[in-house]
Each structure stands twice: as C-alpha cells, then as structure tokens.
Design goal:
With 489 residues, the chain is mostly beta strands. The chain has four helices and 30 strands.
Length: 489
C-alpha cells in the first residue's frame, strides 16, 4: 500500500488489465488505419547529396562488459553498437539485418526525418521479421548528438543501442578532442532478460504486494529531490560505453586540451547525475540544440536526453561519474580521463561535484539560433501522464496506448501541448519527428517532468505523418505510456 500511495494514479481512467497491454507493442493501436506499410522508405538522395551506407546486424551475442559476461542482443558484437556519424544534410541509407529471434525496428531518436523512416511498427512501418532486412533511407537535417534503438517491446533494455552524431559543417569546433559517452543500466544476461523484468513488474503490480518482488526504485517516501521516485527496476550494473566501473573506458588527452563530451542516456529506467571530478563542465547543447553556455559541476540526464559539454582538462586522472538517481544498489557508471601521471580512482569514486548544485537541464537558456520564431499558438492540446505501480499500468490522457486518442495537429500550426504529470514519478517525455520549445524557448526532444510538474511545450507542425509521444522509461512506454500525434487536414 505504501507504494500505491506514493505512485497512485491521481486521475481515473486506466481501468485496463495487463492483458490488454500486450497488443499495444505490436500494433499501432486504434486510429492508425492500415496495419501494413510499404517495405521500403520512399525516399532517394537528391543529386549531389552525400550518401552514407551502412548495415547493422541485430543478433544474439555474448559480451564482456569489463568482467561480467552477458548474453544479450546487440548491433554486432559491441555495446554500444557502432557509432554512426554523418554531416547535417547527408542522406543515410542504413539496412537493418534482423538476425534476432524476434521482430525489431530501428528508431532514430531525435532526428527530424520523414515519417516512413521513423521505425515505429504499426504506425510507420511493419515490424522487421526475424531473418529479414529493412532499409531506412532519410536525410539527417540537423546537427547534434543522437542515438538509435529498436521501437519494439523492451528491446532498448538489451544491448540494442548506439550513438548517432550529425556534424555541423559550419561549426568552428573549438575543442581538441571529443568523447562520445553512452550511459546505460544493465540487466540482460544476468539471470533475467528485460522481458522477464517487464513480466515481473506486471506480476508484482497485479499481486498487490508492496514488496515489488525485488523491484523498486528505492527512492523511499518522496525520494531524494528533485525527481521523487525515479525508477522501477533494480539493476546489477551501470555501464559507461559498455563497461562496468571496474574496467572503465579511458580517454587520453593532454593537460590544457579542450574536450567535447557528447553524453547520451540510453538507459531504460535510470536518470543519472553526471560529473567530471575536479572540473567544471560548460554545457553547450542539449538534444542537438545550442544553449547559452552554462558552467556546471554536475547535471541530471534523463533517459533519451543528450547533453554536450566542453571542458578544459587539468593534469592527472579524472573520473567521469554517472550516478544513478535514487537507486541504492548496482553502483554507478564510470569512465576515466587521463592527461598525466597518477593512479586511477576506484569504481566507487565519489567526486565532490556530485555533492554540489546539479543542473536541471530544462532550466538551461536557449541560444538565439535555437529559438522558434516568435508566434502565438494556433492550437492547444492537453496531455496528462497517468499511472501506477499497482497495477503496473502507465498511460496518457487517461488510457493506455491503443485506447487513448491521438493528439491531432494541422500542418503549419504552432501547437501548444500542456503537459501535466499526474503521477508521483518522474517521466522523460519524448516526441518523435519534431523538437519542442519550453516556455524559456529552450529546444528539446526529450524532457524530464518531475512528479506533478506541469509544462507547456510548443512545436511547429512541419513534418507530416503519424508520430509518437511517449515516456522514455521503456517499461512505462511498454505498459502504455505513449500516445500518437497525428496530422489531420
Ligand atoms: Cu528513443 Cu520513441 O524513442
Ligand atoms: Cu514514465
């Protein structure tokens, strides 16, 4: 009952049993018309456009994450999968070779691409069957730090994720080195799969037990500020670039050099606090968009968010720590930057910066260049985030995905979505195919909403199609915390 009272649904309407949810992951749900889609994305490069060709093989594999060996599913034989890097305006032609024993797709998280390449089965394409290929073809219009992952079930919580960096041909650089840093929470191959975890969450919710069967965010009543009870799953490991802290990846550089960190949270259920021991970081971008540079000692990063920061390195060995918010087991994620002599800090290193002020990313100010043109909204929509642990059920606008009604917009409109988190958990809200502006003008595609937080977001409807809005906690999304955004005439 304790858990129920903390995370109880605060408005009615989610009256469905877990059995009803299963259909949602393989079917776009009510209101999305035909269930079959073309087999190839109908787009071709324009004359002179640079084309990037790649094949990604999704398959079962066994990985060494720095000691522990885990059986998992990955793109090739590494976690994260191979970095894809292109220049803004390039045409990407990327084939998914699905050698998994399950349907899959790839979603290009944060990329403002055309609808047929968005990777949402039942909404933008048919699922890619085991033993088949699907080629994604799209232009990547905007520079920034992105990633990609399946949009099927809880496959994101396996090893199926990789960074995607789109370079800006006009960017001066101003740094000597770059480090793409991908954070993850890891359970697959440690005795249970993400599918087991999801089934256990549903079972624990249905049983009405407050122990949660080994689940639970450990946040305690109210949890530590500011995110309340931030996660549902107990993970044995947290990874930085695919490694546990006992075998950290090390970036080597010279003292005085400037490093651009591109930090991606690919976790399924974990918000991290990120700090580089002994350093201040200057945050320059979030979700690909430039911000007024902000010097911080530490910042939060929610699932699906990205932050770029520049840092001038001191002399020595320094820990880049990503500490799971509100979780008391499984340790933390760690990487090292080495510019000189010295012994490496241990896996549990706790840099002082973690104890100081921590930036909440939605409070960053937008760079002038990142602002939407000033304009009053043409239309408004309401979006509530609802749900509970018991039953384990998460939804939007009073119902699970497939039962809720898609939001609608007309091409050319500025749509204001008044988002209200009606739960006692934090949720990273993600929008496909567009980015949105917060009241400050800050542009993002994924934003954390604290318990009971209310946040208006504005988007320009400039990319027709059927799109997803969902919580980027993959267990919440799979339980139903998703809704469509549909263009209408
Ligand atoms: Cu990375 Cu639909 O999300
Ligand atoms: Cu959520």
């Amino acid at each position: 009952m304790h858990r129920l009272s903390r995370r109880a649904i605060l408005i009615g309407g989610l009256g469905l049993g877990a059995g009803a949810l299963t259909a949602c992951s393989t079917n776009g749900g009510a209101g999305f018309g035909s269930s079959t889609f073309g087999s190839a994305a109908p787009e071709a490069p324009s004359p002179g456009q640079k084309v990037l060709l790649k094949t990604l093989v999704a398959k079962p594999t066994t990985l060494d994450v720095g000691g522990p060996k885990v059986a998992t599913w990955a793109y090739g034989d590494t976690v994260p999968g191979p970095l894809i890097r292109a220049t803004a305006g390039d045409f990407l032609r990327i084939t998914l070779d699905n050698q998994l024993p399950a349907d899959s797709t790839i979603h290009w998280h944060g990329i403002r691409l055309h609808n047929h390449a968005d990777g949402v089965p039942g909404m933008t394409q048919d699922p890619v069957k085991p033993g088949t290929l699907f080629t994604y073809q799209f232009t990547a219009p905007d520079p920034g730090t992105y990633f990609f992952h399946p949009h099927v079930g809880v496959q994101l919580d396996r090893g199926l994720y990789a960074p995607l960096v789109i370079d800006d041909p006009r960017e001066p650089g101003g740094y000597d080195a770059e480090w793409v840093v991908v954070l993850d929470d890891w359970v697959d191959g440690t005795g249970r799969t993400p599918d087991d975890v999801f089934a256990q969450l549903i079972a624990a919710g249905g049983a009405g037990s407050s122990s949660g069967g080994g689940m639970g965010g450990m946040g305690g009543m109210g949890g530590p500020q500011p995110w309340g009870d931030a996660g549902d799953v107990t993970y044995p490991y947290f990874l930085l670039n695919g490694k546990v802290p006992a075998a950290p990846e090390t970036l080597s550089a010279k003292p005085g050099q400037r490093v651009r960190l591109r930090i991606i949270n690919a976790a399924s259920d974990t918000i991290f606090t990120v700090a580089l021991g002994g350093h201040q970081m200057t945050v320059t971008h979030t979700d690909g968009h430039a911000v007024v540079p902000q010097e911080v000692g530490a910042f939060y990063i929610g699932m699906g968010e990205r932050y770029d920061a520049v840092v001038t390195l001191k002399d020595g060995v320094f820990p880049l720590v990503a500490k799971p918010f509100g979780k008391t087991s499984g340790g933390q994620a760690l990487g090292l930057i080495r510019t000189g002599m010295g012994s490496a800090p241990g896996p549990d290193v706790n840099p002082a910066e973690l104890g100081g002020p921590v930036l909440i990313g939605s409070r960053l100010q937008p760079a002038e260049s990142a602002k939407l043109p000033a304009k009053a909204p043409d239309a408004t929509a309401q979006l509530t985030l609802d749900g509970s642990m018991q039953p384990y059920q998460w939804g939007m606008n009073g119902a699970v995905f497939g039962k809720n009604t898609p939001l609608t917009v007309k091409a050319g409109q500025r749509l204001r979505i008044n988002v209200m988190n009606m739960t006692m958990m934090t949720h990273p809200l993600h929008l496909h195919g567009h980015t949105f502006a917060l009241p400050s003008g800050l542009r993002k595609d994924t934003v954390l909403l604290a318990p009971m937080e209310q946040l208006p977001i504005d988007l320009d409807a400039d990319n027709a199609g059927d799109w997803m809005i969902h919580c980027h906690n993959i267990y919440h999304a799979e339980a139903g915390m998703m809704i469509g955004l549909r263009y209408v005439k």
